[in-house]
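Field reference: sequence -> structure
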Amino acid sequence: MTHDDDNGLPAPNYTQVPNFIIDEWMKKLSSAEFKVISLILRYTAGYHRRSASISFNHFEHQTGVSRKWVRKCCKKLEKLGWIRILHGDHETSNTYEILVKKEESLKNLDLGYSTPQSSELKNLDLGYSTPQPRVLSTPGVGYSAPPIKKAKKEKEKKDTSPAAAAGCRLSDFLLMKIKEMDPTFKQPNLKAWVKVFSLMMDEQGRSENDIKAVITWVFNNDFWCTNILSPSKLEKQYTALFISMTKDKENPKAKQAEETTTKLKRIEENKASATKFLLGKRFPDYRNSMKMRDQGVDCQSNGASEMIGYAIDTELFRKNLQHAYIKNQQVARRTSS
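Structure field:
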């Protein structure tokens, strides 16, 4: 059997991979996780450095793993203590640092092979025509990985985009509405709130005025005002909330009918409460008495009459009823003496 020179692997220029990944973890890792750690090792240990910036676009094209699963895999690898992720902003990619138990630097390790030349990378057929990420540049040819310590000390750039400004206004408005109901509400992470609102406007096409209108409607609704207490919950239920708000505007009669039903229910509850309260109560003087009427409880005291209407809030109705009873008792005692 003859050997064809065109077959076989290229000349050895391999990336050093820790044995325990292959010996102990290959059967435990999913195919996506193994691909992701292999790519990170390729652009860190493969170039004799601890860290490298790799875009999600490059992960997708090199591994065939979707962006969503790349994120999940990176989180698991970070949890295992194999890598550290330094998150970039919207202009720069994340930086991935491999973590080793020994204190010696990768630069001092004898990996037994030479670093791949930039010409090899230029001739590599990746099967797509997107711009190459910066990570492909070879050290010493115009690119070096950013120092990890400096990356930590760099201040976050303030987002001055219109969506971010609108997100700040919406966050303040939502917080104000919540604190109107509960002044002791814990101060939230407003940066996270702004990010959610910006996402709703940039990626979902929501307008600031529409979102503000929905928030206003939510806090006028007895059910939703206790369930929408953060932008994430608002974003999750936004479509249902917007449709309900639109229906209320288009059909005011239905809303009025709902309010009437609620009012009648409250009146019946207050009537039942008054009946139970007055049952068995005795008033020694007819001038100091309490009688149930159609509109409410008529509280008479020395010729003066005061009506406690059934339509008011149930809790307030009970307080007024108790107060009127105590007042009648006091007047009755003075009259009898």
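Note: The first strand starts at residue 51 and ends at 53.
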